[in-house]
Amino acid sequence: MQRNSGRAGDDLATALLRAGRVMVGVSERSLDDEGGVTLPQFRSLVLLDRPEPVNLVTLAGLLDVGASTAQRMVERLVRRGLVTRDRHPDNGREVVLRLTADGEALVGRVVARRRRALGAIARRLPQGTRAAFVEALHAFAEAAGEPVVTDRDDSLWDL
Question: Element (H or E) spanning 78, and its range?
Fold first, then answer.
């Protein structure tokens, strides 16, 4: 395999881009049986899968899109019965977004498919590199500002 070594970090960037293609493929395949839910729509559902209420402006910020783009996405998800709009429990003028039972079930199914697919790939890693790989991925996610998820930290290695 030929690697670009012209600048510091190029090897790492190339490796991450390659791994990213794998992740996108796994992500796309995990949605195959979900009736046309797109990756951006699924990302919205995942961001709404939390106990605290999320309003449209917050969702748009989390998605790094404008409020009108987030609004169109939410409209599609509401029409599909995956998201509801409700009044905020503490502020009746604010509208919050929540997953419906169908939305929660969809997120659960897709995450389970992804875990199985990633687990199958992870089991093919050499045993001696797994711990270092996990540590490097956590460091990468932290550097990117990805929040730590504690309620779903089941180990891939147990799959």
Answer: helix 67-79
Phi, psi of 101 (to 5 degrees): -60, -40
User: What distance in Å separates the CA atoms of residue 152 and residue 39, rounded to the nearest whole number?
Assistant: 20
Contacts (Cβ under 8 Å, ≥6 apart) of 38: 31
Q: Which two tokens stand for residue 128?
A: 């001696």
74 neighbors 95 (Cβ within 8 angstroms) = no
**pTM of the prediction?**
0.79
Residue 110 tokens read as 């897709």
**pLDDT > 70: percent of the chain:** 87
Rounded distance between C-alpha atoms, residue 98 and residue 47, angstroms? 10
Q: Are 70 and 55 in contact (CB under 8 A)?
A: no
Determine the longest span between alpha carbons in the chain, in angstroms.
59
What is the chain's length? 159
Q: Report the distance separating Cα 147 and Cα 20, nearest Å.
A: 19
